[in-house]
Structures are given as structure tokens and as C-alpha cells.
Design a protein that fits this description.
The chain is an alpha/beta fold and 184 residues long. It folds into 2 domains: 3-127, no CATH class; 130-183. The chain contains 8 helices and 3 strands. It has helices at residues 20-23, 42-46, 48-53, 62-65, 95-104, 121-127, 130-155, 159-183; strands at 3-9, 30-38, 76-82. It has a 3-stranded parallel beta sheet. Helix 7 packs antiparallel against helix 8 (159-183).
């Protein structure tokens, strides 16, 4: 597939994605890329950024941090920063600039309304340590599982019934958690 002009908004692509492989030479598959970097995209800062640290697939935080200058080619432009969270780059105020870039490969991004000078301090700070958010989520899930176990223990008439209920509830709970995290 070949694309002339591509726009990213709230991108979960790795900041280290090697655009030079796709934007240059005879095998050029992408003409130009425009990446909107949001000022408070906590979704990207907390979740795919952790995967980026482990280099799982090409998931990462380009929508929060932008692309690494070492892997960017001349065809990659960024808007740092669009005020707002994960959907900041697809708000109606950006539509004309998105259309102009997709059609013509250029847009006067200095005039883009809703620009921000910097990222939100809290999102930026927590984005540096996304594992903290994941740890808090795991802690909350653990506490929920412990509460569920306590309720089952109170409802169980004896140790055999309790073991049966926990044995039944634990895989169901883990399956529901897996479905929520991978289909979300």
C-alpha cells in the first residue's frame, strides 16, 4: 500500500518508529506524515508508553512525546502541542488543517487554533513513569480480587464450598479482566 499524506492524532505508534524506511528512496510508501501531539494525552502517556519501554511491537507514545528525531525523515512534521487529551487532534478546530495536509501535503500549522505551549504537568510527570499507573491498576485489581474472595468466604458454608467457589470464580475473573484489557 502507498499513502501520499498521513495524519496521526492520539498516535500509539512508537516514538522510535523508523519513518526513513517508508518515506524515502524508491520504495517510498508514505509521502508525508503529520503528527498531532496532544498536551494532555494521558491515554497514550500511561498505557502504550509502557509497551514502548519493552519494545513490544511498534506500540508507543508518539501522540504524547512525538517521534524521535533520529528516526524521523524530512517528510515527518509534528504539531507540538494541541491543547487537550487523546482526541485533541481530531477536534473540529483541526479539520481544515487536516484536510489541507491530506490533500496538498502542507498546511500553515502556525495558525492552528487550540495550540498549547507545553504539556499538562501532571500528564507529563506521570508519563515519565507509566509503570506507576499500571502498578496502581494491578493493586486495585488485587484489592478487588481480595474483596471478592472475602465475600465468597463469607457466603461459603464450609471449606469445600469455599474452595469450589474460589476455583470457579478465579478463572472467570481473570478471563473477564483479560477481555477488558485486550478489547478495550
Amino acid at each position: 500500500m502507498r499513502f501520499e499524506n498521513v495524519v496521526f492524532a492520539g498516535s500509539v505508534v512508537s516514538t522510535r518508529f523508523d519513518w526513513r524506511r517508508f518515506t524515502g528512496g524508491q520504495s517510498r510508501r508514505v509521502g508525508k506524515v503529520l503528527n498531532f501531539v496532544a498536551s494532555a494525552d494521558w491515554v497514550v502517556a500511561f498505557f502504550p508508553k509502557l509497551f514502548q519501554r519493552f519494545r513490544w511491537q511498534d506500540l508507543g507514545s508518539a501522540g504524547h512525546d512525538g517521534f524521535d528525531t533520529k528516526t524521523r525523515s524530512n517528510g515527518v512534521e509534528e504539531v507540538r502541542y494541541v491543547a487537550g487529551a487523546h482526541s485533541a487532534g481530531i477536534q473540529e478546530r483541526c479539520w481544515d488543517w487536516i484536510a489541507e495536509f491530506v490533500i496538498n501535503g502542507r498546511a500553515d500549522l502556525r495558525q492552528l487554533p487550540g495550540r498549547a505551549e507545553s504539556r499538562h504537568w501532571c500528564v507529563e510527570a506521570l508519563g515519565r513513569v507509566p509503570w506507576v499507573i499500571w502498578l496502581l491498576i494491578l493493586l486495585a485489581v488485587g484489592l478487588l480480587a481480595a474483596a471478592l474472595g472475602a465475600v465468597l468466604w463469607l457466603l461459603a458454608a464450609g471449606p469445600l464450598q469455599f474452595a469450589f467457589l474460589v476455583g470457579l470464580a478465579t478463572p472467570l475473573f481473570l478471563w473477564a479482566l483479560w477481555m477488558a484489557l485486550t478489547r478495550g
